[in-house]
Design goal:
Strands 1-2 form a two-stranded antiparallel ribbon. The protein is mainly alpha-helical. The protein has one domain (41-201, 211-218): Tetratricopeptide repeat domain (Serine Threonine Protein Phosphatase 5, Tetratricopeptide repeat), CATH 1.25.40. Helix content is 60%, strand content 2%. A hairpin with a 4-residue loop joins strand 1 and strand 2 (138-139). The longest helix has 31 residues, at 2-32.
């Protein structure tokens, strides 16, 4: 009987060791994921047929895996994908998966906004006007590292009001009304002239039209 119990104890001990090894290996594998090339990263989309790397990165973003989302978006942003530029800007704005850098966020939003990406244009309007857009969880009441320029803010909100969704148009128009009260007629005329003469650069992007807000858990207030 004693010998049987010893064998049983040893068997249970072996099982426990195997389980520990399996769990440890699994954790190690998960830790390695952020360092992989983005082509090798798992696709979290439920139907596994999605080929758009931006959308795959978005699924990781929605799950809070910002470092993995960055690996999908960064190469696209470098190829002038306007949605990826706007989204990478959100990461830098919030310090999600990257070191917080308002200057880099503004640069990426500008690249996207110049191509006609509406959410980037609204973000720039908020940054230059030192205002908050709760719809995108972007709060630039304290500047977001950009010197206040109401003409520039008006311009970006004005551009967004021309091509955004009904909700985006409404937000842009209300923002224009709010900042117009702080502007002279000369400033407003200058902003309107910039809107009239604006052309997408280097060309107009084809946005996917997906609404993306800043990560609420890392929302910035500076």
């Amino acid at each position: 009987m004693k010998e049987y119990r010893n064998r049983k104890y040893l068997s249970l001990k072996k099982i426990a060791i195997v389980l520990v090894l399996v769990i440890t290996a699994g954790c190690a594998q998960v830790e390695q994921i952020p360092g992989q090339a983005y082509e090798e990263l798992p696709n979290p989309v439920s139907d596994f047929t999605e080929k758009d790397k931006f959308k795959i990165g978005l699924r990781w973003y929605e799950q809070g895996s910002f470092d993995i989302a960055k690996k999908f978006w960064k190469p696209l942003a470098e190829e002038d994908d306007c949605d990826a530029q706007y989204s990478m800007g959100l990461l830098y704005y919030s310090g999600a998966g990257v070191r917080r850098d308002f200057g880099e966020a503004a640069a990426l939003w500008t690249e996207a906004g110049e191509q006609g990406q509406v959410q980037a244009q609204i973000a720039l309007g908020a940054a230059y006007s030192h205002t908050e857009i709760s719809y995108t969880s972007i709060n630039c009441n304290r500047g977001c590292g950009i010197e206040k320029d109401l003409i520039e803010g008006y311009k970006w909100f004005g551009l967004a009001s021309k091509s955004g969704s009904p909700r985006e148009v409404g937000i842009a128009q209300k923002s224009i009304e709010r900042i117009s009260a702080q502007m002279s007629s000369t400033q407003i005329e200058e902003a309107r002239s910039e809107i009239y003469n604006w052309k997408p650069s280097p060309s107009e992007c084809i946005s996917r039209g997906i609404f993306i807000a800043a990560p609420s858990a890392t929302r910035a207030f500076y």
